[in-house]
Amino acid sequence: MKIHKEGRRILFVTLLVLLALNLLVFQFNKGADLVNRLFAGATVIVFLLILQFFRSPFRHLFTHEDLLLAPADGKVVVIENVFEPEYFEDERKQISIFMSPINVHVTRNPISGIVKYFKYHPGNYLVAWHPKSSSQNERTTVVVESDAGPLVLFRQIAGAMARRIVWYVNEGDEVSQGEEFGFIKFGSRVDVFVPLDTEVKVELGQKVKGGETVICQLKVQ
């Protein structure tokens, strides 16, 4: 396991701040060994919690033109047919994955293909399970023309804790299944929109791993 590049600066600054706080506490509490030890232990726990947010474990990636892989670690919270207004302007099948603070926050390309559309939307920070989070929160929308033919839309959505979305793709890019397309700092949610005739391979409440779990199968055109 390695530390993701998006967390290195934050972790370095956090480490400096916590070390400085420990030095101040030790300076003003000379002789109070119990207090000093408790404070030091608390700062270690804080640092470890932040550290786990930015872990980037090794994944066994594979590619298949008609299988969609989970774009993120988390739990499947939505499987339903909905109207997608931003790009398709018609009904699509939506699969949503909720990322808790303890999940890996790397987001991955669910399918290989060409990026046909990309847009960043500034917005609010409603909790990820709020019905309007998909349309009102800070988010990015990516549409990929898959090697299998169908267009696939996936969306990074910030939540109450996630205050920054990072992306590594732009229109015209060729993307490979399983590779990183972004990072949501401190987690939130990823939505995937596919054609209605797509066969879903996961169930509500199922835990998935980004780049490994097959979430659905496209009909090859």
TrEMBL record:
<feature type="active site" description="Schiff-base intermediate with substrate; via pyruvic acid">
    <location>
        <position position="188"/>
    </location>
</feature>
<keyword id="KW-0472">Membrane</keyword>
<comment type="similarity">
    <text>Belongs to the phosphatidylserine decarboxylase family. PSD-A subfamily.</text>
</comment>
<dbReference type="InterPro" id="IPR033175">
    <property type="entry name" value="PSD-A"/>
</dbReference>
<comment type="pathway">
    <text>Phospholipid metabolism; phosphatidylethanolamine biosynthesis; phosphatidylethanolamine from CDP-diacylglycerol: step 2/2.</text>
</comment>
<dbReference type="GO" id="GO:0006646">
    <property type="term" value="P:phosphatidylethanolamine biosynthetic process"/>
</dbReference>
<comment type="subunit">
    <text>Heterodimer of a large membrane-associated beta subunit and a small pyruvoyl-containing alpha subunit.</text>
</comment>
<feature type="site" description="Cleavage (non-hydrolytic); by autocatalysis">
    <location>
        <begin position="187"/>
        <end position="188"/>
    </location>
</feature>
<keyword id="KW-0443">Lipid metabolism</keyword>
<comment type="function">
    <text>Catalyzes the formation of phosphatidylethanolamine (PtdEtn) from phosphatidylserine (PtdSer).</text>
</comment>
<dbReference type="GO" id="GO:0005886">
    <property type="term" value="C:plasma membrane"/>
</dbReference>
<feature type="transmembrane region" description="Helical">
    <location>
        <begin position="9"/>
        <end position="28"/>
    </location>
</feature>
<keyword id="KW-1003">Cell membrane</keyword>
<protein>
    <recommendedName>
        <fullName>Phosphatidylserine decarboxylase proenzyme</fullName>
        <ecNumber>4.1.1.65</ecNumber>
    </recommendedName>
</protein>
<keyword id="KW-1208">Phospholipid metabolism</keyword>
<keyword id="KW-1133">Transmembrane helix</keyword>
<keyword id="KW-0444">Lipid biosynthesis</keyword>
<dbReference type="Pfam" id="PF02666">
    <property type="entry name" value="PS_Dcarbxylase"/>
</dbReference>
<feature type="modified residue" description="Pyruvic acid (Ser); by autocatalysis">
    <location>
        <position position="188"/>
    </location>
</feature>
<keyword id="KW-0456">Lyase</keyword>
<dbReference type="GO" id="GO:0004609">
    <property type="term" value="F:phosphatidylserine decarboxylase activity"/>
</dbReference>
<dbReference type="InterPro" id="IPR003817">
    <property type="entry name" value="PS_Dcarbxylase"/>
</dbReference>
<feature type="transmembrane region" description="Helical">
    <location>
        <begin position="34"/>
        <end position="54"/>
    </location>
</feature>
<keyword id="KW-0210">Decarboxylase</keyword>
<keyword id="KW-0670">Pyruvate</keyword>
<keyword id="KW-0865">Zymogen</keyword>
<keyword id="KW-0594">Phospholipid biosynthesis</keyword>
<keyword id="KW-0812">Transmembrane</keyword>
